[in-house]
Amino acid sequence: MSKIDLTQYQTLIFDCDGVILNSNKIKTQAFYDVSKIYGHKPAQTLKDYHIQNGGISRYKKFEYLLTEILQKPIETQELNSLLSSFSKKVKNALLICEIAKNIKELRDKTKHAKWLIVSGGDQAELREIFKQRGLDGYFDGGIFGSPDDKITILKNEKNKCNIIGKSLFIGDSMYDYQAATTMHMDFIFLSKWTELKNWGNKFPNNSCVDLSSLLD
């Protein structure tokens, strides 16, 4: 498939996990490990739910664990404990996992465009990870994440005129695609690190471009 012309876009919006960082499997395993205190079956159910709902925040997923899988009311202390355990498990791994190649070359190619991260990951955690890994400087439009969902973030940043002109969302999940189409943005699906199964059958014809990496 021919490469898309990235120079036509004034704003490039990137998901993080599976796009900038090879971190999908890290987080998938962490969801299982953190929730296995309730037993293997609830932990496996949450893990499967996470894979099927890539791009949605950990806040929503642990709420789903409590209310839908365990059928219990949400207690703030319990939810916060799960979130804290999850963050501890993933943080160190995010500091050493693989970074998508050619980020600098892509940035040089699109100097005219504003770059943003819009992720389901925790916003404070993302900003710290990107700073420590020397990636934050590429994203002049900012690094955004949960607890706000992606559509809310996109709407907010568009209202602030932080997202301008023709915009492209680069992601690896159905939720990324849904967020992009909701906001009338073009979309690129990255297959290299995705955990979305049978992704080739998920999208309408000509709705996305399959790229194995950002410049390949």
Structural description of this entry:
The chain is an alpha/beta fold and 216 residues long. The chain folds into 2 domains: 6-22 and 99-211, 3-Layer(aba) Sandwich (Rossmann fold); 25-94. It is 43% helix and 13% strand. It is built from 8 helices and 6 strands. The chain has helices at residues 24-35, 40-52, 58-69, 76-94, 103-109, 123-132, 150-159, 174-182, and strands at residues 11-14, 114-122, 143-146, 167-171, 186-190, 210-211. Strands 3-2-1-4-5-6 form a 6-stranded parallel β-sheet. Helix 8 (174-182) links the parallel strand 4 (167-171) and strand 5. Helix 2 (40-52) crosses helix 3 (58-69). The protein is globular and about 50 Å long. 35% of the residues are buried. The mean pLDDT is 91.
* Backbone CA Rg: 17 Å
CATH class of the largest domain: Alpha Beta
Number of strands: 6
Distance between the termini: 11 Å
**Which structural class fits the helix and strand makeup?**
alpha/beta
Strand content: 5-15%
**Overall pLDDT level:** 91
Any idea of the CATH topology of the largest domain? Rossmann fold
Give the helix tally. 8
The profile of the biggest β sheet is: 6 strands, parallel
What is the spatial order of strands in the main beta sheet?
3-2-1-4-5-6
Tell me what the CATH architecture of the largest domain is.
3-Layer(aba) Sandwich
Runs in which pLDDT lies below 50 for 5 or more consecutive residues are none
Shape: globular
In total, the number of domains comes to 2
Order of helices and strands: EHHHHHEHEHEHEE
**Roughly how much helix do the residues carry, as a percent range?**
40-55%
Could you name the CATH homologous superfamily of the largest domain? HAD superfamily/HAD-like
